[in-house]
Design goal:
The complex is a heterodimer of chains A (173) and B (196). Chain A has 173 residues and is of the alpha/beta class. Chain A has nine helices and six strands. Chain B has one domain (12-188): Thiamin diphosphate (ThDP)-binding fold, Pyr/PP domains (Rossmann fold). The chains are: A alpha/beta (173), B alpha/beta (196). At the A-B interface, strand 2, helix 3 and helix 5 of A face helix 3, helix 5 and helix 8 of B.
Chain lengths: 173, 196
């Protein structure tokens, strides 16, 4: 899908191809490269958030103004979004959340497991369509597909980027 | 200044009339509850987007809209409860500093929707101080109609992010209910503003 072998660059290319103009994010190691690419792109407004639920509202406002937004967050942040997702559902705002998973593959910190193990279920309870990526080769086209269904149908979608894909956080360096 | 009992306070319906008297091209976002009824009391408008839920989200909807529509003034009118629930949004807005976004918080120090229980602004919390500390330098306390009219004019100029805490009386005027159909409100807003 891109000239780069890095799946993160493939996701960035998918965001560009979908004409994403606002990217809300909470700083995250797994998304670091993607965040940097969004920040460096003059056509994308990368908005650092204090909590992920701000991003759901940001994306709604962007769509009201005729722009497309995407959100980048960690699995723990999905829990912060639950009530705000009622905005997307009640108004059928298009929404795509790219979620780096914690609390699964070789997790060091057991506190991440509580939310990480319920991330998909929590999203599905709020009628968010969930796609999961375990293989780097699938990342870009899965994100592209999630964006397409979101903006074609006024639906909320999430792509879970598995912890095995990202690499477990190294605590002892 | 916190919401002391001796402070002069505006009638909320008079306040919204002043804010919207010469709205021009202004796009309006209102928060869950009373500020939505206030906006509707002036007359429904296709350039209004009313939140009927998503408490804490009004200012961030305004931010996304303001970034997307730099050509239009964006006004968020919401309450102290909604603002307190999403206080981090003021930090995010302070960083982003959209020149066309103005936020007016109708502050009665109460949760009017649920029975007038006191909010944090009734005692300790000073929202103007919070906004300034978040980097929104043009943050002011308003308790009279002349200052509110000045604020409304400044919002039209789209020169800097504005924040006003508007001291209002803790009363409950008759409710004026606009549509609660979110899909309709979204679609008519986009059509009326030329993006769909």
């Amino acid at each position: 899908m891109t000239g780069s072998d890095d799946w993160r660059d493939g996701i960035f290319a998918a965001l560009k191809a979908a004409d994403i103009r606002q990217v809300g994010y909470v700083p995250d190691a797994g998304h670091a490269r993607l965040i940097e690419r969004c920040q460096a792109d003059p056509e994308i407004r990368a908005v650092s958030l204090t909590t992920e639920e701000e991003g759901i509202a940001l994306a709604a406002g962007a769509w009201l103004g005729g722009q497309r937004a995407a959100l980048l967050m960690q699995s723990s942040g999905v829990g912060n979004c639950i009530n705000m997702l009622s905005l997307a559902k009640s108004c059928r705002f298009p929404l795509t959340m790219l979620v780096t998973m914690r609390g699964e593959w070789a997790e060091f910190n057991p506190w991440q497991v509580a939310m990480g193990s319920k991330t998909q279920a929590a999203l599905e309870l709020m009628d968010v369509l969930v796609y999961r990526v375990d293989e780097a080769a699938d990342a870009a086209e899965t994100v592209a597909a999630a964006l397409e269904i979101a903006f074609n149908g006024g639906l909320a979608t999430a792509v879970l980027l598995s912890q095995r894909l990202i690499g477990a956080k190294r605590w002892v360096k | 200044m916190t919401a002391g009992t001796n402070q002069k306070r505006l009638d909320r319906r008079a306040a919204i009339r002043v804010l919207l008297a010469e709205r021009g091209e202004t796009l309006l976002v209102t928060g869950l509850g009373s500020t939505t009824y206030d906006a509707a009391s002036v007359g429904d408008d296709e350039g209004n987007f009313y939140l009927w839920g998503a408490m804490g989200g009004a200012a961030m909807v305004g931010l996304g809209l303001a970034i997307a529509r730099l050509d239009r003034p964006v006004l968020v009118v919401t309450g102290d409860g909604d603002t307190l629930m999403g206080l981090g949004a003021l930090a995010t807005i302070g960083v982003e500093a959209p020149p066309n976004l103005a936020i007016a918080v109708f502050d009665n120090g109460r949760y009017a929707e649920t029975g007038m229980q006191p909010s944090h602004t009734d005692s300790a919390v000073d929202l103007v101080g919070v906004a300034r500390a978040c980097g929104i330098a043009a943050a002011i306390d308003i308790a009279d109609e002349a200052a509110l009219a000045d604020f409304a004019r400044a919002a039209q100029a789209k020169e800097r992010t504005l924040f006003a805490r508007v001291a209002i009386l803790a009363d409950e005027p008759p409710r004026v209910l606009p549509s609660r159909d979110g899909v309709y409100l979204k679609t008519r807003f986009r059509r009326a503003t030329g993006v769909e």
